[in-house]
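Recall the central idea of this unit: under ordinary conditions, the amino acid sequence of a chain determines the structure it adopts. In this exercise we apply that idea directly, starting from the sequence alone.
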Amino acid sequence: MQKEGRAAYICRTMALRVIESADPLSDPAVLAVRDALRGGGLTGTAGGDENVRQAVREVIADVEARGDAAVIDLTARIEKVELTPQTMRVEPAALRAAHEAADAGFLALMRRVIANIREYQEAILHRDPPALVRGGRTLGVRYTPVDRAGVFVPGGSGSGAVLISSALMTLVPATVAGVPEIAVVSPPTTDGDVHPLVLAVACELGIEEVYRVSGTAGLAALALGTRTLRPVCKLVGPGNAFITEAKRQLFGRVGIDSLAGPSEVLIVADQAARADWLAADLLAQAEHDPGSAVLVTPSRALADAVVAEIERQLPGLDRSEGLRRGLDRYSAVLVVPDLAAACAVANEFATEHLQIITADDDAAMARIRNAGAIFLGPHTTVPLGDYYAGPSHVLPTGGTARFFGPLSCNEFLKASSVLRYDADALAADAADTAEFAAREGLTAHANAVRVRVGERPERR
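Accordingly, the structure predicted from this sequence is:
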């Protein structure tokens, strides 16, 4: 075992580091794991990949200048698919055909998942609360959906994983929010077209506006508007470094959900946890290639057992080469003094998925402030949230759970304050309001109040 830094001891196994630290939040070895998630490693552009930033800037500028022609050219160059303005949009008949051709078992499964997502989203949907009434003053809030949302659905190239679940986890919350218009952009990666299961999902949900265009160009078109793709109010959906960077640069012209990058999990566990289950959970997130898997525990015995289990399970998994890359570059087992220290590390990492498997899960959760989604107990593995339970799996990554939350139906709503005064309430508050405005030197503001209560404008 090699000593590194002031407090860390690092042991390198075949696939995974074990870092033992008495002071993890001050330890360079532990903070290096955190920084790999935040700073240009796992999240691609978070640390300033100028090549990605510049490429995305050029795409956005091109789409802004040339509209549909730029989207068509970029799709031809990136996806090797030739389009025209008439063929960018998937025909409604093609949506119906994909739905009719889908496997009956898949459709049944999809409907069960949709029901779970819809039930959860409807349960958490913001509704206008009763107004606060103070005398003749009625003060409230009104929630309304955005007029039009754009959803990016990954096309299934690269690793070959077709993330149909991402379509459900973005589209169902938008429909629950009542968004009247939803436009889907998905790259034409399957024989020159959007994957048929993505089309089947759109048809099942009654969404008829689907575009077969390259992702970054499509997002730019939805944000800026072209002759064919009308502009939206909000862009959502996970993607690669280019999609994340496009959302970053387009934010302000449109709203976004979050800057979601590759998947990550941090597990807080003690001796009550099973090593084989922990190993399986860590491997599940590393499978995303890239993906990050971090275990934080006060038990060195558990840490060693988990590492041994990873080495035992890894050879039998299909994506073992990619798994090893994720474990080697972005993952670790951290051995800390106690559960309080483990929870402090979890808050510092502010991870996308946080699993808590301890003798007292609720007590551990009470210490947590920063996490995208929290999975409590040994039976609550992250894939339940990825596919089936109901909460959206579109979650903040790369430490952004410090200020972002999960995608939900409420992300598609806007809040408007609602105020109503009667004459007596205005008369009661006029002097204070006018004085405040006058003290700021805004006499027109003061006058707008005074004229309503019969006062003449002040002369200077």
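The chain has 17 helices and 16 strands.
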